[in-house]
Amino acid sequence: PSIGKTSKMKIFSVANLKFILGLFDWKSQDNSENLKQSVTEATLEFLVTALTSTKNGIVFHDPSYGTSGSNQNHLLFNFLLSLNEPWTKPHLAKLVISSLATCPDQIRPYFAKVLQSLWTPRHSEAWFMLIDFIYAILETIDMPKIVQDLREKPKLMTTVVSQFCCNEKVFKEIVLECVNSNDHLVLVKGLELEALLLNKLNYVLQNTSKIQGK
């Protein structure tokens, strides 16, 4: 607690975080599974705290939810960019999903930089893993908190809700393509994603007064 966030960010740079990340692949000399499991759990606990705690970690809450045009979490974003296909590795997937839940301002840029080029619907195990990862990220968006934070800022709320629940690229490039697919499982995945976003939008409509401009 006595260490300031600026100092923490200098200590836990992207390069140093990646060294810590390497502990997931650490092997003891005697190949002890119990010891390896302990190291894995400690590493994940540390990284989750560092990347999800605005009090003790190295991330910041962006009150604009990523709409201000200024990135409040450059270190987190650069670290996430350094992870190779985290949706294929449970520990990394949990880390990314948890950090984006705390910092939803990074969801859109992460989608654009990492996921968009890969999310075209197709019947493959790789795509099914990716779409489940996308679903898990969007599922973490805390609409009650957004509504509470932005209740007195209806214009900003409109922008934020549109950004998360009515993302044009997600609907056009994933949902619509899935709906037009002849593959049943691809269709189901698209409909599940659509239902998730519509349910979140429905929560907003039911729990806010009339939003200006709508």
What do these coordinates show?
The protein is mainly alpha-helical and 214 residues long. It contains 11 helices and no strands. α5 runs parallel beside α7, α7 runs parallel beside α11 and α8 runs antiparallel to α9. The chain is globular and about 55 Å long. The termini are far apart.
Tell me the strand percentage band: under 5%
Task: Give the SSE string.
Answer: HHHHHHHHHHH
Mean pLDDT: 93
Tally the helices: what do you get? 11
CA-atom Rg in angstroms: 19 Å
Please identify the structural class as seen in this structure: mainly alpha
Straight-line distance between termini: 45 Å
From the spread of the alpha carbons, the general shape counts as globular
Largest sheet: none
- As a percent range, the share of helical residues equals 55-70%
Low-confidence segments, given as residue ranges, are none
- The strand count comes to 0
Notable characteristics:
mainly alpha, 0% strand, 214 residues, globular
